[in-house]
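STRUCTURE:
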């Protein structure tokens, strides 16, 4: 990931005086965790929310003039069976369609902890 960031987010391309190639684009992260969702918070084992842990990506998006959205997160994957994994995959497909179709935007996701928090709110 670090190498990709260094190669793609180059001064003069992604940021800097003449680096506007990514401006206005949207950055979305898709992640899985082994631990449950409650482990990611002030009182949880990891002490930080997923959004807080991903703050460097938020800042990178800002540097490049991009829109950073809350992440799509599937928690507790170590305990998920095939049906739950298929459900998460279907949710991800719905999120991608919502992004494509303009149902999911930076404005309507700003307060969400994760994109797949409540897909019904987007009409998906």
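SEQUENCE:
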């Amino acid at each position: 990931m670090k190498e990709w960031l260094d190669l793609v987010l180059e001064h003069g391309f992604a940021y800097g005086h003449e680096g506007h190639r990514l401006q206005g684009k949207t950055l979305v992260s898709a992640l899985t965790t082994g631990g449950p969702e409650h482990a990611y918070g002030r009182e949880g084992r990891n002490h930080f929310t997923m959004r807080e842990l991903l703050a460097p990506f938020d800042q990178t998006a800002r540097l490049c003039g991009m829109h950073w959205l809350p992440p799509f997160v599937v928690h507790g994957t170590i305990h998920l069976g095939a049906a739950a994994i298929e459900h998460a995959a279907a949710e991800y497909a719905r999120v991608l369609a919502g992004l494509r179709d303009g149902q999911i935007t930076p404005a309507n996701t700003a307060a969400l902890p994760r994109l797949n928090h409540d897909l019904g709110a987007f009409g998906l």
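REMARK: The chain has five helices and four strands.
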